[in-house]
Queue: 2 jobs
Job 1
Amino acid sequence: MNRPDKIYGKGFVGKTLSRFAQLFENELYNERYAAGDGLLQSMDPRIKVLVVLAFMVFIGFTDNCIILVAAGTVSALYAAASALPLRPYLRRTWLYLPTLIFILNLPGASSLLTGGTPLFYIIPAGNFVHEGVYFSTAGLNMALRIALRTGDSMAFAFLLLMTTRWSDLTCGLRRMHLPEIFVSILNMAYRYLFLIAETGTDMMQARHMRTVGAIKSADSRRFVSSRAGQLFIRVHSMSDDIYGAMKLRGYDGSPVNLRELRTGAADWLFVLVNVIILVILTIGGYVF
Amino acid sequence: MHIPDGYMAPETTIPVLVGMVPVWAVAAKKVKEKVGEKNLPTLALGAAFSFTIMMMNVPVAGGSSAHAVGAVLIAIMLGPWAATIAVSSALLIQALVFGDGGILAFGMNCLNMAVVMPFVGYGVYRLISGKKSAAVAKAGEYIGAGVEYSRTKSTAVAFGSSRSIIAAAIAGFVGLNAAALLAAVEFGIQPLLFTGADGAALYCPYPLSVSIPAMMFAHILVAGPIEGVVTGAAIAYIAKAAPQMFVSGDVSVERQSFLKRYKALLIPLGILVILTPLGLIAQGTAWGEWGTDEIKKTLGYVPSGFASMADWWKSILPDYTVKIFGNGAAGSITGYVISAVVGILLIAALIFALSLFVKKSRKGNVAREQTR
């Protein structure tokens, strides 16, 4: 299937349509992966949330690059055990943001901000800058550490979101005492954002269909702004209808969740295994 | 501006996340107090709207494009507390479903984009649009923003006026830049607080001197104007295309500005302040305001009680003279004016305190009467 930016061009219409398409694509694939019968799919969402948070906190406090690589390997192993396609998983987690963060941190990793024994020079000493500009081991280690930490955090976040249905996730959050009002808002927002995105897609496609020749940038900005206003008007009138429909179906202010979550022996074993993994990683931090 | 996990120290992201809990609780309470469960669909759709706005690319010069956040637009339409909930929900969906923005950094992202941005933007909007053109959005009343709006009831006709549109545009610009500035400070304090044994930063390596200019340059020149244009133009469109969303016709009470309200009192007081230096022209001393030297001159001696108390109080402005302006006319006139202003303020404070006391005691009496 052709990507929207290939059909509609690389302008703002193409980019917006691409983002809307990604939204639907993401939902489609996440639902498919979450419906699988891999390791993480069969775990209680509450336990999954807690384990993922524990790994994130651990990663946040870890400075050792070797341990960070090991944590990344753990996430990849879990992805494999949960039958997630490894290439898209690794591409989504490691290809874009961690790489970008590494590149963005390079000026900070140079001798401009981070000192240390010179490893190699970018600008030799005495030419333009008196002491030259160089990279040290400490600087490169710093840039790598931040990129690895971001990648690891994303890898664990994606494990959670690719193996958990949205309804299970919010049910787990509710059982973890997140106030009902927020869970209800999240659930409704999640359902309706696809409808609104569809409306947005229609607006952008209609705009593309009736465009002939080049249009001034200012006119395009006016168009996007007025579509935002139009979207708000539609959303607002929709909310009245939804509330009416909810009342007719017996809504009395307290949402009912039909899903029952049960924590079994496998979940507790999962917790134990992850505690052991975290202990090993912590000890590894002292060894390496 | 979506801060990912791993780029900030957990020592900063976790406290901010915890600190956001009471903010969400207050926001939920404020919104719930007004209309109960009725707010649910509006807030949910507000969150979905916020999510969608962040996906819509806006063309920038040179063929590139950026996206708006829309938090100020939602704050103007639904109120700042509702915007806090709507944008927070949108950010949580982005973090949990799309991995856009961190999970531990969720609190920080919410502080920047769901609290600072809508509140600063809303404040700027109210400040510039003035009380007369403050929107009385039905949508806002519907979910709680009306608590604020109803205090400044005014004509809704002014909504959509060029002043309110410009106010919305400036509010969008300022709101986004306030959020960007806070994010820059959050980035910039990381190397100050967390450095490894080798001297390298443990998290974001850029200090405030780099993070603030880098963030603000991009936001003042590109993202801010885009946010401003989208906010202003969207408000203009809504006011034109859906005027039914706002209260039509005149609303009974119009709140007056402080100056207008107390005009009758302030003008005479101002004249009095201006006229106070006239006291310098008058000869002699006001009756009963004698100093020790004047009493000695009149009576031939100083009563012992008066002499013992005379030096007890040394005024800040002896003889109403400000020393830095010299002992001449300039010093005296300035001293007189300052004394008059300070005196009036003191008296006003006393009267205000008294009126408060009387009001409270009257309320207490009424309550007692009712219980009887």
Job 2
Amino acid sequence: MMKRALVAVVMMWSLGAIGGGGDGGGPDSLRASGASASLAGTVRGSGPSSQHWLVGSRSDPTLAEAEGPPLQRPPLHSAVRATLHAQQPEQTPQPQQQEEFVPIDELPPQDQLPAAPLLVTAYAVVVLALFAYVVSVARRLGAVQRDLDRLQSDLKRTGRT
Amino acid sequence: MPTWFTPAAVVCGLMFAISPVLIANAPYESTMGLVQKIFYVHLPSAWMFLLGAIVCGIASVRFLFRGDPRHDRLAWAAAELVVVFGVITLITGPLWARKAWGVWWQWDVRLTSSLMGWMVAVAYLLLRKYGGPGSDKLAAGLALFGMANVPFVYISVNYWRTIHPTTSVVPTLPTSFGLPLWFSAVTFFLLFLLLLRVRVRLEEQRASLDALYLSADA
């Protein structure tokens, strides 16, 4: 008897929590979902006629204002909404239309790619590679020349040519 | 050293001093801007890289069929220049690509075949250094593969899908771009000849040294 009552309490609690849309701090994972927010933003950006209740979320402050005061939805309605939310395929957000010019130094560091360091590096590589090769050949040539001179003087000293 | 060496070295030095001025005064390319100026060293070094592979291949063929050690020395010198100019090409190219294409490297046919050609030259040098007796003939055979790769590298951009510019870019260059390019190309060619001569001289000195050691032992 006690067990049956406990199960009934748990079921009521879980349904109530889902139906509350997260206001009560229940297990509403969709509220924290970034996918849900971006989806809402996507549809909202595509025109007012496409605003659908399925993608509306009170976690989005703009949409919450547009919707007005929160509605009392039956728990089953919210459960269906949550299920459909989860099944909605994730869409990539549309790029926003450019409304102003942004100086390149105000971009995040990963989006900035100045050309000058690449150009300077390229020319430095050319100069250094050629210089290193010339020095290398000169040193090898000098070493061989020293060996040649030493051997020739040894041969002269011993009387052989 | 031959009599032409010193005047050619002076001219080459002057041209290397003048070419940055010409390159700086060349106009910016419309889509790539400043980074396109890498072109004036990337392309001439790539040409010298391919020229070195051709010289190495032809000298190796002559060495294989005639057995003349002078051709072997020329092939060895040219292989070293292939590696040097190949390093310059394969480093300046990605530096340009990072800005122009958004990536450092792309495994397309032009880049991959260039890398293969460079690795053949590296293999040639390693074989000459560590291959022991008989490695000169083996290395000469390897140089043939390096030379066979050259036309493949050159025409690859016209026959395969690639993001590398095609060979039609250079003939259609306006004078403002063409003048610094050809000036730089002549400078690199002169430098190639000078370095090749010095490197051959090194091999000649080594051959003289070996001959002296042999005569001393006899």
